[in-house]
Amino acid sequence: MKFNKRNIYISPKAKIGENVKIGDNTSIYDNVVISDNTIITNDCVIGEPLQDYYFNNNYNNPETIIGANSLIRSHTIIYCGCKFGENFSTGHRVTIREYSIFGNHCRVGTISDIQGYVTFGNHCWLHSNVHIGQKSTIGNFVFIYPYVVFTNDPTPPSEICIGPTIGDYSQIAVFSVILPGVKIGKHCLVGAGSIVGKDVDDYQLVLGNPAKPLKNVKDIIDRKTGKSHYPWPYNFDRGMPWQGMNYEEWLRKQE
Amino acid sequence: MKFNKRNIYISPKAKIGENVKIGDNTSIYDNVVISDNTIITNDCVIGEPLQDYYFNNNYNNPETIIGANSLIRSHTIIYCGCKFGENFSTGHRVTIREYSIFGNHCRVGTISDIQGYVTFGNHCWLHSNVHIGQKSTIGNFVFIYPYVVFTNDPTPPSEICIGPTIGDYSQIAVFSVILPGVKIGKHCLVGAGSIVGKDVDDYQLVLGNPAKPLKNVKDIIDRKTGKSHYPWPYNFDRGMPWQGMNYEEWLRKQE
Amino acid sequence: MKFNKRNIYISPKAKIGENVKIGDNTSIYDNVVISDNTIITNDCVIGEPLQDYYFNNNYNNPETIIGANSLIRSHTIIYCGCKFGENFSTGHRVTIREYSIFGNHCRVGTISDIQGYVTFGNHCWLHSNVHIGQKSTIGNFVFIYPYVVFTNDPTPPSEICIGPTIGDYSQIAVFSVILPGVKIGKHCLVGAGSIVGKDVDDYQLVLGNPAKPLKNVKDIIDRKTGKSHYPWPYNFDRGMPWQGMNYEEWLRKQE
Q1: How many Cβ atoms are within 10 Å of C246's Cβ, its own excluded?
Q2: Given A73, B37, C39, C207, which residue has the most CB atoms within 10 angstroms?
Q3: Most B-contacting residue of A22, A131, A142, A175 (CB-CB within 10 A), to test interface
Q4: What is the per-residue pLDDT across B80-118, written as a single tens digit (0 to 9) for each?
Q5: Which residues contact C208 (CB under 8 A, 6 or more apart)?
Q6: Is residue B146 within 8 Å of B118, Cβ to Cβ?
Q7: Is B179's Cβ below 8 Å from some Cβ in A?
Q8: CB of C28 within 8 A of CB of C9?
Q9: Measured between alpha carbons, how far is C134 from A74 in angstroms, rounded to an integer?
Q10: Nearest to B217 by CA among B206, B225, B233
Q11: Taking CB atoms and an 8 Å cutoff, what residues of chain B touch C80?
């Protein structure tokens, strides 16, 4: 259905690995590297050029690398200069601007908009309609839910650009804003609808507008079970490297 | 302008009704049924396959049914397994994932993202940029306004998935979040910018973060008219089955 | 990379100026005027018809004018009846509905959704994912940040449509909602995450849900510099007509 070699453009300057599939209506521009076993589905643009392309005849497209075993869903636009590790995947209509760096096993959901010049660790999952401003730095195992916005200009409009920093394992729930330069620690939970303007210590639940620290995530007690779901790696393993084994066991092996 | 038979893909396993128009650059995949008099405009994907398609050579695309007299605007992606009643319409760039069920006369606005496994009644109108999480259940005559998010995981990330339930005639105003499992009654109004974490009784206006019940919608008095606009079916009939007749008269005929 | 004359549709009723580039997979419909030196990139639709087109054989597409030196990025949909001044630019996947009027030097960011029947002055910058409801009126030098929503129906659903009005130089920060009919003065700053339901005087900072006036923007003192960044034209000039000269000097020249 998707791979009929219909209306495809692949630059002669692109490098396409072994066992790569490219869907109909997709364009792969100059200096894009698609690693082995990756699927680029239909209607995608990979290696989207910088604005300079339109005005400079000597423009040279920076290198873009899509890691092995990735799955790029339809209508995704990935700018030049980006680098993605293995097993990267996107939903539909994702826009990822220049010089975005993602580790391995990351996912970016439908309509999400990554503004470029950002760094993600491994195993980050971004749900639909997430907006990550420039100069954001995100650790490993960070989950970001729909309609979350990361900002970077404290006095708009200005030339200041200081993105948020998010520690490993933290969860940013739907409809939250992380304000410029805010540092969120490890294993934090930002509750739905929060506007976070101050730094957050490790293991804190914060909530509200403005967001305030409420309690340690270990003290979020589930009424049914009488236990806390957090730190979540003890209770969730789908797609995680500790899937099918104990999280603590996996942690010890990392040392 | 839109129907030049340019770069169209229609699967031999699709069934196309009488008097159907299909726009340029559109793909209709396996086992899609397009009912009579429906218009699928340009750059759409109908019957988008499940992830299994990419990895399983024996994949069989579940049936997708678009009802009669529908209008699908450009760049809409509809997954396999969905069923839409008659007179369905979408804005642009709508994404509707697998096994979404819509009644008759429903509308889904531009960029909206329906996550799949949801049920809508008849005459539901979703405005632009609405996000409906999996396992949501929506009644009849429900209007959902821009940047509304329905969620389903109370302790993210987890394997729990309990969507909200919305009663007939309820209105969810812009920029509101309905939290997992919340039940909203009939004829309710959720005010702009609300985070709704508790069930809402019939005819209630709720507002705020966290949302609190303020009054019966019948007591929302318009300063100019001195009357309440609610229950709204008495004061709005465009596109509704009681258009041109009295709402109470129509109600009596339904009994 | 983008200009291979592949799968392009240009209506014989469109007028294409001098030195215009049109990207692959783009459609230019009836009665569109593309002014000189403008670049329409790939996968765009310019002159999208009104709904009447689908049902009326005598439909005539209203005129659409894109000003000179504009840059329309990929997957943008611009409806018929719109008029844009010079140096207009869009991000990706922008949707601009019918009869939207923009002055010169305006920018509309990725995924933004302009609902039509709106008026913008000159030098307005809309960031990603902005939603502007019908009947909104925006002055000059107005910046609107991601996930801002302008609404227009005070008692949804109804036939009332009264959009907000925004004065020159005002800034609407991320994740804010401007409620129907609200008038915001000149040089205002609406802080992140605000729901603005009351009119705002010139030079006011407003914040919160519901938004309340906090102080004059001149009294927002930066801790580092001990000075206020506002009114911002004294401290930001990139892309502005006073770039490289003093703002007051430029102001005097306008008189």
Answers
A1: 11
A2: A73
A3: A175
A4: 999 999 999 999 999 999 999 999 999 999 999 999 999
A5: A209, C191, C193, C194, C195
A6: no
A7: yes
A8: yes
A9: 30
A10: B206
A11: none
Q: Is the pLDDT of residue A255 over 90?
A: no
In whole angstroms, give the CA distance from residue C114 to residue C225: 38
Tell whether A222 lies on the interface with B, counting CB pairs under 8 A: yes
SS3 of residue B237 by DSSP: coil
| Residue B223, pLDDT score | 84
**Contact residues on chain B for C50, CB-CB shorter than 8 A:** none
CA distance A2 to chain B (A): 8
State how far the Cα of B33 lies from the Cα of B11, in Å rounded to an integer.
11
With 0-12 / 13-18 / 19 or more C-beta atoms within 10 angstroms meaning exposed / middle / buried, residue C56 is exposed
Q: Going by C-beta distance under 8 Å and a sequence separation of 6 or more, which residues neighbour residue C20?
A: C34, C35, C36, C37, C38, C39, C40
Q: How many CB atoms lie within 10 A of CB C8?
A: 17
Asked if pLDDT for residue A223 goes beyond 90, the answer is no
How do beta strands A131-132 and A149-150 pair? parallel
**How far is the C-alpha of C12 from the C-alpha of C31, rounded, in Å?**
9
Interchain CB distance below 8 Å, C235 and A158? yes
Asked whether the beta carbons of C55 and C87 are under 8 A apart, the reply is: no
Using CA coordinates, name the residue in chain B closest to A189. B156
Of B7, B75, B143, nearest to C157 by CB-CB distance is B143
pLDDT at C124 over 90: yes
* Strands A137-138 and A165-166, sheet pairing: parallel
Match 């805010």 to its residue by tokens: A182
pLDDT number for residue C75: 98
- Measured CA to CA, the distance from residue A134 to residue A114 in angstroms comes to 8
* Whether pLDDT at C255 is above 90: no
Q: Do C147 and A131 touch (CB under 8 A)?
A: yes
Torsion-angle region of B87 (φ positive above 0: left; ψ -120 to 50: alpha; else: beta):
left
Contacts of the segment B212-218: beta carbons below 8 A, 24+ positions apart = B217/B187, B217/B188, B217/B189
- CA gap A204, A184 in Å, rounded: 9
- Tell me how far apart the alpha carbons of residues C94 and C128 are, in angstroms, rounded to a whole number: 9
Q: Which two tokens stand for residue A50?
A: 């910088």
pLDDT band at C224 (very low <50, low <70, confident <90, very high): confident
Could you tell me which chain B residue has the CA closest to the CA of C195? B193
The Cα A239–Cα A247 span in angstroms is: 13
Indicate whether A107 pLDDT > 90: yes
Which residue do the tokens 């770069």 mark?
A: B7
Rounded to the nearest integer, the mean pLDDT of chain B is 97
Mean pLDDT of A149-177: 97
Distance CA A38, CA B22 (A): 31
Q: Which pLDDT value is given to residue A70?
A: 98
For residue C78, give the amino acid letter. I
User: How far, in Å, CA of C201 to CA of C210, rounded?
Assistant: 16
Q: Return the pLDDT at B255.
A: 81
| pTM, rounded to two decimals | 0.98
Q: Please give the Cα distance from A185 to A191 (Å, whole number).
A: 14
Nearest by CB: C149 against B25, B111, B147: B147
Are the CB atoms for C187 and C217 separated by under 8 Å? Answer: yes
**pLDDT tens digits for A29-55?**
999 999 999 999 999 999 999 999 999
Q: How far is B184 from chain A (nearest CA, A)?
A: 18
Residues of A in contact with B30 (CB under 8 A): 1
